[in-house]
Amino acid sequence: MAPHFTQSLPMCYGLSAIGGILEVGSIAVLAVPDAREKEGTPIPTWLSMVTLASNVSMQLIGSLSSNLIAPWFGPVSVVAPIYFSATLVFNLIIFGFILGLEFFDRIMIVGTYVIAIGTVLLQVVGPGIQDGQDIGE
């Protein structure tokens, strides 16, 4: 008998967003040592291996949570918009504001906010839990 998963929109939204956040985090894990190396700070070989392993682990966990597990709990039509808007927002926050590795002009920032607000509104007016869509029934 297959496992039974009851649909839960908050769980679907959360797993999708976690996937986007982990995607950006996995890139940041590699970008920070690379930026330090370009500045002239030597990076030990063991640290390069640790950052590579962290990158692969975060990518794997992010992909599993957003692409495989999140659709078990809600409609697929909301998984991708949440994933991509979380990726855009956290890319802006981590690389633009926290690390300062990228420059985002005003138009890019406003565009990111518009996409994020559109994704939030999709949750209000978009699809809900669908009857008869539970796995295992």
Helices and strands, with pairings:
Elements (H helix, E strand, L loop, with lengths): L8 H30 L6 H29 L2 H23 L7 H20 L12
Taken from the alpha-carbon principal axes, the silhouette is flat
Query: Helix/strand-derived class?
Result: mainly alpha
Largest sheet: none
Q: What portion of residues belong to β-strands?
A: under 5%
Q: Number of helical segments? A: 4
Rounded radius of gyration (Å): 18 Å
Description:
With 137 residues, the chain is an all-alpha fold. It has one domain (9-125). The chain is built from four helices and no strands. The protein has helices at 9-38, 45-73, 76-98, 106-125. α1 (9-38) packs antiparallel against α2, α1 (9-38) packs parallel to α3 and α2 (45-73) packs antiparallel against α3. It is flat. The mean pLDDT is 87. Keywords: Membrane, Transmembrane, Transmembrane helix. It comes from Skeletonema marinoi. This is EamA domain-containing protein. The chain crosses the membrane at residues 13-32, 82-101, 108-129.
Entry keywords:
137 residues; 4 helices; EamA domain-containing protein; single chain; transmembrane helix; mainly alpha; membrane; 0% strand; 74% helix
Short summary of the structure?
Helix content is 74%, strand content 0%. It has helices at 9-38, 45-73, 76-98, 106-125.
